[in-house]
């Protein structure tokens, strides 16, 4: 039986922390759906299309990965896509409460059908977030350590727009 999982998130933009979780998830699962959340509540730098395209630049040729976007509840999307396992990354303690809450809600909403699996962040990514990346970018800082080189320019370009240049 093929083991499939979904890795949902904002990916605004995709960071080396996300990439680490994706690569490690692929050691466990045969196929992974990376699902970009179109969240109207959360103000994002990049449109869903831009976020999806950045991930496609990285993984578009990988047969084990599908890149999709969704809005609404994760459980509804998982039902539609016939997926039962969601992967989430856990960084410092600050992630724990929010992630636990999400996992419990998703389990409850799916009546126990869906499971969440947590992968701990690697040490070097423990304090890395998309928010930090945007903060560095807007202040013209060095991004090379935190994001893949294929998307560096996209982030720099967006930062220019945000600075009004
Ligand atoms: P953020 O909280 O940075 O906006 P996302 O919503 O894109 O992140 O995150 C999707 C998932 O990836 C979440 O489970 C989040 O905890 C995880 N994640 C984000 N950054 C990292 C990281 N540096 N290392 C491991 N997991 C991470």
Automatic annotation (TrEMBL):
Its main location: cytoplasm. Pathway: Cofactor biosynthesis; coenzyme A biosynthesis; CoA from (R)-pantothenate: step 4/5. Its cofactor is Mg(2+). Residues 6-135 form the Cytidyltransferase-like domain. Its EC number is 2.7.7.3. GO terms for biological process: coenzyme A biosynthetic process. Transmembrane segments: none annotated. The keyword Magnesium applies. Keywords: ATP-binding, Coenzyme A biosynthesis, Cytoplasm, Magnesium, Nucleotide-binding, Nucleotidyltransferase, Transferase. The record marks 18 as: Transition state stabilizer. It comes from the Bacteria. The keyword Membrane does not apply. It is found in: Cytoplasm. Belongs to the bacterial CoaD family. NCBIfam families: coaD_prev_kdtB, cyt_tran_rel. Homohexamer. This is Phosphopantetheine adenylyltransferase. It comes from Haliovirga abyssi. The gene is coaD.
């Amino acid at each position: 039986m093929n083991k499939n999982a979904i890795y949902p998130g904002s990916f605004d933009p995709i960071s080396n922390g996300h990439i680490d979780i994706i690569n490690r998830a692929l050691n466990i699962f045969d196929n992974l759906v990376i699902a970009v959340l179109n969240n109207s509540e959360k103000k994002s730098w990049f449109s869903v299309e831009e976020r999806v395209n950045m991930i496609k630049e990285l993984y578009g040729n990988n047969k084990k990965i599908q890149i999709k976007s969704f809005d609404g509840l994760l459980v509804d999307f998982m039902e539609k896509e016939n997926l039962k396992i969601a992967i989430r990354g856990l960084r410092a303690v600050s992630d724990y409460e929010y992630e636990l809450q999400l996992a419990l809600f998703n389990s409850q909403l799916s009546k126990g059908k869906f499971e969440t699996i947590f992968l701990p962040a690697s040490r070097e990514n423990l304090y890395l977030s998309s928010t930090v990346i945007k903060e560095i970018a807007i202040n013209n800082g060095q991004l090379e350590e935190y994001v893949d080189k294929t998307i560096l320019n996209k982030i720099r370009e967006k930062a220019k727009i945000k600075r009004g240049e």
